[in-house]
Specification:
This protein has 338 residues and is an alpha/beta fold. 34% of the residues lie in helices and 14% in strands. It folds into two domains: 128 residues, Rossmann fold (3-Layer(aba) Sandwich), CATH 3.40.50; 191 residues, NAD(P)-binding Rossmann-like Domain (Rossmann fold, 3-Layer(aba) Sandwich), CATH 3.40.50. Helix 1 packs parallel to helix 12 and helix 4 crosses helix 6. Bound molecules: 1,4-dihydronicotinamide adenine dinucleotide.
């Protein structure tokens, strides 16, 4: 099976080559993203392998169909960038629903600790032999309340980590889970979560319902000094409202691994360029904002699991077999992939 691999990065290749060679799947790596302009590169291949910022809209899907593409293999969990309804009946769409929930949950906690204990500031100070502690006062997580939105695989690992820190955990999920309640977690309404949490962490998918879940109104309800962590999808947070919340001192800390307009910037070295996204530039300039470039998944364990499951998914499609990682598996409702 021959697969056109879009938005390829050097760190993708070793694991995809390893599992591909083992199973007879040949990947051709293209550095460019999949878009309406680049879709023709898929000519002569059986499938495409895409990531979070590739464009897989109706027009791209129609072009892929004309080229005889049978499979869209997402090498990630979220699939908000694929028009799944349009692809239905034309080609099969598979994803990697879980590769390492630990990678993402641990990164969320790493960002939170970095920010609230000012590690990013002290790292720079001590490299310059500045051993002053002024302005580095943080706060204990022990005894604080964390509100977790989305208690699936990553949310649950994050809850366990927070419990380990002695935090009280509140949660909100469209589909509350008994297993989570048994951990001593209380499900509450979104409003109660906003008004009661010292830290809010987002672990739900991006859907029409969750778009701008954290907007100006939500921030207004939050405690003064709230820490907001987003390792899920950028558009869950209205970035301008967040920036305003930081300027008014309502938001004490923002930890962002994802950003609404990230596809223009993230994963690329833009250090020699003029940053033309004023909101992103202003967020990055804030002392209490930590931005990482959609890095939460990037561990050796996760990369290996992503490649292994993607190759498994592609082989299932090649053989015409059912695949449980298909987005519309057994006519599961689109957007309800639990
Ligand atoms: P999951 O499917 O196991 O859990 C998602 C949870 O969100 C489920 O419990 C679901 O019921 C809940 N949910 C669905 N709609 C909701 C709504 N309207 N309101 C509240 N909760 C809702 O997914 P998993 O593996 O935990 O991943 C969560 C998200 O993390 C993914 O959707 C993806 O966007 C993001 N992610 C980010 C990565 C990164 O590198 N930054 C890597 C992997 C995933």
């Amino acid at each position: 099976m021959k697969v056109a691999f879009f938005d390829a990065k050097p760190y993708d290749r070793p694991s995809f080559d390893k599992f591909g060679e083992r199973c007879g799947v040949k990947f051709k790596y293209f550095e460019t993203k999949l878009t309406e302009d680049t879709v023709k590169l898929a000519k002569g291949y059986d499938g495409v392998c895409v990531f979070v910022n590739d464009t897989v809209n109706a027009s791209v899907i129609d072009s892929l169909e004309e080229l005889g593409i049978k499979a869209i293999a997402l090498r990630c969990a979220g699939f908000n960038n694929v028009d799944v309804k349009h692809a239905k009946g034309k080609m099969r769409v598979v994803r990697v629903p879980a590769y390492s929930p630990y990678a993402v949950a641990e990164h969320a906690m790493a960002m939170l600790l970095t920010s609230i204990r000012r590690i990013h500031k002290s790292y720079i100070r001590t490299r310059d032999f500045n051993f002053s502690l002024s302005g580095l006062t943080g706060f204990d997580l022990h005894g604080k309340t964390v509100g977790v939105i989305g208690t699936g695989k990553i949310g649950q690992v994050f809850i366990d980590i927070c419990k380990g820190f002695g935090m009280n955990v509140l949660a909100y999920d469209k589909y509350p889970s008994e297993k989570v309640e048994q951990k001593g977690v209380k499900y509450v309404s979104l409003d109660e979560l906003f008004t009661s949490s010292d830290v809010i962490s987002l672990h739900c998918p991006l859907t029409d319902e969750t778009y701008h879940l954290i907007d100006g109104g939500a921030i207004e309800k939050c405690k003064k000094g709230v820490a907001i962590i987003n390792t899920s999808r950028g558009a869950l947070v209205d970035a301008e409202a967040l920036l305003n919340g930081i300027k008014t001192r309502k938001v004490g800390t923002a930890c962002l691994d994802v950003y609404e307009e990230e596809s223009e910037h993230f994963f690329e070295d833009k250090s020699g360029h003029i940053m033309d996204d004023d909101v992103l530039a202003r967020l990055i300039s804030m002392p209490n904002v930590i931005v990482t470039s959609h890095q939460a998944f990037l561990t050796e364990e996760a990369l290996s699991a992503i490649a292994e499951v993607t190759v498994f998914n592609l082989l299932k499609i090649e053989k015409g077999e059912e695949c449980e990682n298909e987005v519309c598996y057994k006519n599961r409702e689109v957007g309800d992939c639990k």
